[in-house]
């Protein structure tokens, strides 16, 4: 049966451009499968706008703070409007890298050693032996990520900047060398593992993710089957431990320099994975036999409020 679907996009986080691209692709797909669509560029009046529009379902294509940290999810719960992706608690938990790491580790998922502190305390001298990575504790799309190599005599001085836009709390995490792997979970099924090969970039940064030709997606990843199974098992374990629903995507580093067993480290779970033309989940789903329209249609049908 055809539904009226409000596609929430844009918003006011640093990931607004990505969200607009995801939202357009999803809205087009939802229309193509026969649903009525209202495209809503989200502002502070989103609750009022949704009450006026009165859709049957909200398709959440927002990214970053407000869109995937439990905030918009709380508004949708208050309105009793079924919505896609994870709920309030899972969204808030997964968005906070430190808390997500604690939960994942408790579920048996391998994580890297890390410290959380104020950015000004991470700036004067190394708080961990290089190489390490500095990440904002609650940002996405690799915004604010700094890699500190072995040859750096001191941490990046950008941390002192008065216009640093990513919050004062950062995570300093041991750098894990190796290959970028990711795995999508759809409902309670872990799909194929994908290897991300950045083109001309040192790591999978913003341009690698969203610029055309920024990276290649190899699905299924050319890795030993037993490693692929471990990635799938850990992805599903993280999805369940956080209480995610719908579609999520877990990211890993796999260091196979000293043998195919290698070191496999979970980095994070994304409860609002990108749905742009260059995004990972559509490629992973396609390899499993799900067209983009099938994937988006499944997500619309899966939408719910807390039970």
Automatic annotation (TrEMBL):
Cofactor: Mg(2+); Mn(2+)
Compartment(s) of residence: Cytoplasm
GO cellular component labels: cytoplasm
Keywords: ATP-binding, Cell shape, Cell wall biogenesis/degradation, Cytoplasm, Ligase, Magnesium, Manganese, Metal-binding, Nucleotide-binding, Peptidoglycan synthesis
Cofactor binding, note field: Binds 2 magnesium or manganese ions per subunit.
Keyword Electron transport among UniProt keywords: no
Domain spans labelled ATP-grasp: 101-301
UniProt cross-references to SUPFAM superfamilies, sorted A to Z: Glutathione synthetase ATP-binding domain-like, PreATP-grasp domain
Catalytic-site annotation from UniProt: 15, 141, 279
PROSITE patterns per UniProt: ATP_GRASP, DALA_DALA_LIGASE_1, DALA_DALA_LIGASE_2
GO BP: cell wall organization; peptidoglycan biosynthetic process; regulation of cell shape
Entries under InterPro entries matching the protein: ATP-grasp, ATP_grasp_subdomain_1, D-Ala_lig_Van_CS, D_ala_D_ala, Dala_Dala_lig_C, Dala_Dala_lig_N, PreATP-grasp_dom_sf
Residues involved in Mg(2+) 2 binding: 268, 270
EC numbers for this chain: 6.3.2.4
Residues engaged in binding Mg(2+) 1: 251, 268
Reactions catalysed: 2 D-alanine + ATP = D-alanyl-D-alanine + ADP + phosphate + H(+)
GO molecular function: ATP binding; D-alanine-D-alanine ligase activity; metal ion binding
Signal peptide limits: none
Keyword set includes Lipid biosynthesis: no
Pathway participation: Cell wall biogenesis; peptidoglycan biosynthesis
Family, per entry: Belongs to the D-alanine--D-alanine ligase family.
Protein task: Cell wall formation.
Protein name per its UniProtKB record: D-alanine--D-alanine ligase
Annotated organism of origin: Jiella avicenniae
Record lineage: Bacteria, Pseudomonadati, Pseudomonadota, Alphaproteobacteria, Hyphomicrobiales
């Amino acid at each position: 049966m055809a539904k009226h679907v409000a596609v929430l996009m844009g918003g006011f986080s640093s990931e607004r451009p990505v969200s607009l691209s995801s939202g357009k692709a999803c809205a087009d797909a939802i229309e193509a499968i026969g649903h009525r669509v209202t495209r809503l560029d989200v502002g502070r009046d989103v609750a009022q706008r949704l009450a006026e529009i009165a859709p049957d379902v909200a398709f959440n294509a927002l990214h970053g703070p407000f869109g995937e940290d439990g905030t918009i999810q709380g508004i949708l719960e208050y309105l009793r409007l079924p919505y896609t992706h994870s709920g309030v608690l899972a969204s808030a938990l997964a968005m906070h890298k430190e808390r997500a790491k604690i939960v994942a580790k408790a579920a048996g998922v391998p994580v890297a050693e890390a410290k959380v502190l104020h950015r000004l305390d991470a700036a004067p001298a190394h708080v961990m032996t290089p190489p390490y990575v500095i990440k904002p504790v609650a940002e996405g799309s690799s915004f604010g990520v700094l890699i500190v190599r072995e040859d750096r005599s001191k941490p990046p001085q950008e941390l002192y900047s008065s216009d640093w836009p990513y919050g004062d709390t950062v995570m300093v995490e041991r750098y894990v060398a190796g290959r970028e792997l990711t795995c999508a979970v759809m409902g309670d099924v872990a799909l194929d593992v994908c290897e991300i090969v950045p083109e001309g970039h040192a790591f999978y940064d913003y341009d690698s993710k969203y610029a055309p030709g920024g990276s290649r997606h190899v699905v299924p990843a050319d890795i030993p089957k037993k490693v692929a199974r471990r990635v799938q098992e850990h992805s599903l374990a993280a999805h369940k431990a956080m209480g995610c629903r719908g579609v999520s995507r877990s990211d890993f580093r796999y260091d196979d320099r000293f043998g195919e067993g290698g070191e496999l480290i979970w980095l994070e779970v994304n409860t609002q994975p990108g749905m742009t033309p260059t995004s990972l989940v559509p490629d992973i789903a396609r390899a499993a036999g799900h067209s983009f329209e099938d994937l988006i249609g499944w997500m619309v049908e899966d939408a719910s409020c807390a039970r």
